[in-house]
Amino acid sequence: MPDDTAPAADAQSTAQPESKAVDPFDPESFKEPAIMTAESPDSGVKDASKVKILVFDMGHVFVDFDWDKVCQGFCDKAGITREEFRPVLAHVGSLGYELGHITTDEFLKELNAKLGTAITLAEFTNLWNATFHENQSMADLLQELGKTRPLYLLSNTNENHFEYLEGTYKVTRHFSEHILSYQVGLSKPDSKIYEEVLKRSGHDAAECLFVDDLQPNVDAAKALGMHTIRFAGYDDLKARLTELGIIA
What we know:
Rossmann fold, 7 strands, elongated
């Protein structure tokens, strides 16, 4: 899910493959996260016995989507190519939708102006959320984890995406608290959004385990003193949590 407001070329991970389509709402910008990797990333957990809360990213962790197909839907609607759509996304992505700087209506108005379309809010919502689905295995794992420790959601997302996901899947059911970029005006990997988790939870960084699929986000949490796991798929995560004694 879906995650930054403007291209961030200085926050790219060399481990990431080239994206098929530009996603200005992803901190990796012109990169697409490698969700399933041949080799598991190193764990950043030093002492699992100190972990009191678990903090999870949303997009490409327990909510999956195909951004390439979403982009194609808008291209088909506007009658343009992917390359023609690329600068449009780069522009609207720079407006701060994921930071709450503009509303959904304002975002759509700008998108229509750039595309030369008259997409309605209902049409936009269908296109914008076309491929979202909750990963059932991860949803089950979150429910299991929530029995022993509070879970916190930390996501770079926007108003329309989150309202759709909450209305369709009730994604907040897993979590004691949710910290969303568009609501707090901050986004990963800014250290201030991780500090918001600590403030709301009342826990020190050393008592938090953070799970995210993007390396820059993991690195920022680690720099703050959080334990970290870079998400590489359900099986890998479950194995790591089992090894750490967080689940049986």
